[in-house]
Amino acid sequence: MRPILMKGHERPLTFLKYNREGDLLFSCAKDHNPTVWFAENGERLGTYRGHNGAVWCCDVSRDSMLLITASADQSVKLWNVQTGAQLYTFSFNSPARSVDFSVGDKLAVITTDPFMGVTSAINVKSIADDPSQQSGESVLTITGPTGRINRAVWGSLNKTIISAGEDSVVRIWDSETGKLLKESDPEVGHKKPITSLTKSADGSHFLTGSLDKSAKLWDTRTLTLIKTYATERPVNAVTMSPLLDHVVLGGGQDASSVTTTDHRAGKFEAKFYDKVLQEEIGGVKGHFGPINALAFNPDGKSFSSGGEDGYVRLHHFDPDYFNIKI
């Protein structure tokens, strides 16, 4: 499983996202330019130029026509995937942290950071079929959680929104009314800020990663804790195989303390865990800095990781990976 090294970013990676077919990979980084690559061979197709700050997150529509990006320049932009043209800009009063299209791509949930007296918020925007008809008005705005909301995604059938962030609590909101429906039990939940959240392929459960050196698997409907994966480093990124019962965690020590140690001490590898047994079953080394982003190809045959070192590493699994019997 020799990785393909993709060098197109000048600064640390922040987020990776495959389109539904799994032929395109979108990467976000702190260098202002979201980039799209061929997922098969790692060839760079192009960049989306227009942001003026770090880009924290992106999502792509089901038909791979529309890209949405969230940036520290206090804006969220819609792009034409094919041409790279900017279609619309949503402006906010604070940095935009995460974006997620609803099923059907008619809505997008956007989280914004606390900034200069503005509290963090979850905003729902309606996405017009015709970009010239696009409005900047929010359909719904939810405030309440303290600190940054690092990730918000749609629950099943777009009826709920799941959010998690610095206050280490996972919350489920009603997407119509904005009412808080459930929050994670502090006894079993994370003890430090939640850095990442990803849903399973069928949406029935989701995985959170935290600086408390663990990842947790939750039931989407009931917010019951199903599994906990303990590791010996802060977790910055999590992903799940759509094919096998594998969970992948990425992380490493904080960037500020990295320079004092050599690359072996930093624990910069993507760790594979058995989803059911919660045991570590393998790892993929390679990054020269913490892993900030992970994504599985929807076909389950490859995955990519993005690091503090500015590289995206694309790993195609050997055929015998699919015969692993633990």
From TrEMBL:
It is found in: Cytoplasm. It holds the Pfam family EIF3I. PROSITE patterns: WD_REPEATS_1, WD_REPEATS_2, WD_REPEATS_REGION. One of its GO terms (cellular component) is eukaryotic 43S preinitiation complex. GO terms for biological process: formation of cytoplasmic translation initiation complex. Keywords: Cytoplasm, Initiation factor, Protein biosynthesis, Repeat, WD repeat. One of its GO terms (molecular function) is translation initiation factor activity. Transmembrane segments: none annotated. WD repeats lie at residues 6-47, 48-89, 142-183, 187-228, 284-314. Gene3D superfamilies: YVTN repeat-like/Quinoprotein amine dehydrogenase (2.130.10.10). Component of the eukaryotic translation initiation factor 3 (eIF-3) complex, which is involved in protein synthesis of a specialized repertoire of mRNAs and, together with other initiation factors, stimulates binding of mRNA and methionyl-tRNAi to the 40S ribosome. The eIF-3 complex specifically targets and initiates translation of a subset of mRNAs involved in cell proliferation. Component of the eukaryotic translation initiation factor 3 (eIF-3) complex. HAMAP family: eIF3i. Belongs to the WD repeat STRAP family. Belongs to the eIF-3 subunit I family. This is Eukaryotic translation initiation factor 3 subunit I. It comes from Populus alba.
